[in-house]
Amino acid sequence: MSPLVSVVIPVFNGEKYLREAIDSVLCQDNARLDVVVVDDGSTDGTSEIIRGFGPAVRYLHQKNAGTGAARNRGVEAARGDFLSFLDADDLWLKNKLTVQMKTFIENPGLEAVFGHVKQFVSPDVDGEPQTRLFCPSEPIPGRLPTTMLIKRESFFRVGLFETNWRVGQDVSWILRVREGGISTIMLPDLVYMRRLHKANKGITHRQFINDRVKIIKAHLDRKREKSCEM
Fold it and tell me: Which pLDDT value is given to residue 1?
């Protein structure tokens, strides 16, 4: 029997794209799934969409606390031997878990497997707003929680997501993966499709964009302190 994979999907007012996102998980080839969707205080029709999937999806609700807190809530409820993440407006390719699990079987010492990501402009965006969205035409390596499949025990070696950043939780967590010496690999396979639209956090949270600079500085400070201790 294949290992159980817990997929954590945080969502806040995501009724527009959430159904497609969940479908892309449930359509995975030959996977045993534990799908956990954490509603981070939505005020739209998000809860109805989640409940519409019935027992295939577990629904958790919390007061609005941000993506990091919602992911952490999902992780704490997860039952799987492996963990993976999906944003509520993005999509997995149907063979994502197949190629990543195959890599684990072939390389038992690995702790986390990443893949490539391709961006696309959402079909509902047209006209002038579309021209302002930068969309590379080729897939790129996606060293992100959302392209990753990770062993449960390895995730907890890194720790939960930080909740004090409005933008950049992903950057912070991946830097901690490097600091923790987690054994990883980047596959050449395309596994993830990132949707570009007018409500992306990079657009709606521009006032917090300096969070990424602060996160990288904190990472460099920790590296410097560690080298001084050696």
Answer: 74
Position 147: which residue type?
T
pLDDT value for 7: 98
> What number is the average pLDDT over the span 87-106?
97
Q: Return the residue matching tokens 């600079």.
A: 213
The CA distance from 170 to 145, in Å, is 6
Question: Which structural domain range is residue 28 located in?
Answer: 4-229
Task: Check: CB of residue 182 under 8 Å from CB of residue 112.
Answer: yes
pTM: 0.85
Number of H helices and number of E strands within the chain? 9, 9
Q: Give mean pLDDT, residues 155-178.
A: 89
Question: Of residues 135 and 51, which shows the higher confidence score?
Answer: 51
- DSSP-derived 3-state class of residue 197: coil
Dist. CA 170–CA 166, nearest whole Å: 11
CA distance 192 to 68: 20
- Interatomic CA distance for residues 117 and 146, integer angstroms: 9
Number of domains in the chain: 1
CATH number for position 172: 3.90.550.10
